[in-house]
């Protein structure tokens, strides 16, 4: 069992991977980064003979397949909303801190809270649209107005909100506010 699970959420190009990668560097071997999208991308890469590393990265490549991956994964979720959360956790090593870098739906939070209760902390990363555009965001109908991007827009119970808009919060400040959530460890 982990001792704490940090659930990160944020819209496309808000900086989820950027911040969780920096956090992982700081926590080194005390943490494990889990991605709910990992089993989705692995499946997709295998089925369609695609480059998994490109799907896992932040290039334009994965954007070509995003809508198809969303539609396929949502179909799976209608039968079992925890399906990908469960697989993402299956291979987690025995580390005290788990960082889940891509929470997108209320059912994701529900699944983790149901299974791990008090161990979970929810973190929302926000960045204004101009910043996200500068970092590669382009609005796509079906993606940016759908559940994958908007499913947590009206969630209000975040333990922490981080502003990752250009020039707003320094990285050190962002990381120390996350570390404060770990103070009971
Ligand atoms: N605070 C920051 N300073 C500089 N560059 C940043 C910052 N945050 C994010 N970026 C850069 O912006 C780009 C998008 O960030 P990132 O991939 O972390 O977003 P994401 O929320 O994981 O997006 P997606 O959901 O599309 O995968 C990356 O190239 C990343 O390095
Ligand atoms: C298909 C999907 O998992 C892709 C996520 O990719 P990324 O976290 O933005 O790199 C999004 C979703 O599950 O809604």
TrEMBL record:
<dbReference type="GO" id="GO:0005524">
    <property type="term" value="F:ATP binding"/>
</dbReference>
<feature type="binding site">
    <location>
        <position position="135"/>
    </location>
    <ligand>
        <name>ATP</name>
    </ligand>
</feature>
<keyword id="KW-0808">Transferase</keyword>
<dbReference type="GO" id="GO:0005829">
    <property type="term" value="C:cytosol"/>
</dbReference>
<comment type="pathway">
    <text>Isoprenoid biosynthesis; isopentenyl diphosphate biosynthesis via mevalonate pathway; isopentenyl diphosphate from (R)-mevalonate: step 2/3.</text>
</comment>
<dbReference type="GO" id="GO:0006695">
    <property type="term" value="P:cholesterol biosynthetic process"/>
</dbReference>
<keyword id="KW-0418">Kinase</keyword>
<keyword id="KW-0756">Sterol biosynthesis</keyword>
<dbReference type="InterPro" id="IPR027417">
    <property type="entry name" value="P-loop_NTPase"/>
</dbReference>
<keyword id="KW-0153">Cholesterol metabolism</keyword>
<dbReference type="Pfam" id="PF04275">
    <property type="entry name" value="P-mevalo_kinase"/>
</dbReference>
<keyword id="KW-0067">ATP-binding</keyword>
<keyword id="KW-0443">Lipid metabolism</keyword>
<keyword id="KW-0547">Nucleotide-binding</keyword>
<keyword id="KW-0963">Cytoplasm</keyword>
<dbReference type="InterPro" id="IPR005919">
    <property type="entry name" value="Pmev_kin_anim"/>
</dbReference>
<keyword id="KW-0753">Steroid metabolism</keyword>
<keyword id="KW-0752">Steroid biosynthesis</keyword>
<protein>
    <recommendedName>
        <fullName>Phosphomevalonate kinase</fullName>
        <ecNumber>2.7.4.2</ecNumber>
    </recommendedName>
</protein>
<feature type="binding site">
    <location>
        <begin position="11"/>
        <end position="17"/>
    </location>
    <ligand>
        <name>ATP</name>
    </ligand>
</feature>
<keyword id="KW-0152">Cholesterol biosynthesis</keyword>
<dbReference type="GO" id="GO:0019287">
    <property type="term" value="P:isopentenyl diphosphate biosynthetic process, mevalonate pathway"/>
</dbReference>
<keyword id="KW-1207">Sterol metabolism</keyword>
<keyword id="KW-0444">Lipid biosynthesis</keyword>
<dbReference type="GO" id="GO:0004631">
    <property type="term" value="F:phosphomevalonate kinase activity"/>
</dbReference>
<feature type="binding site">
    <location>
        <position position="174"/>
    </location>
    <ligand>
        <name>ATP</name>
    </ligand>
</feature>
<feature type="binding site">
    <location>
        <position position="164"/>
    </location>
    <ligand>
        <name>substrate</name>
    </ligand>
</feature>
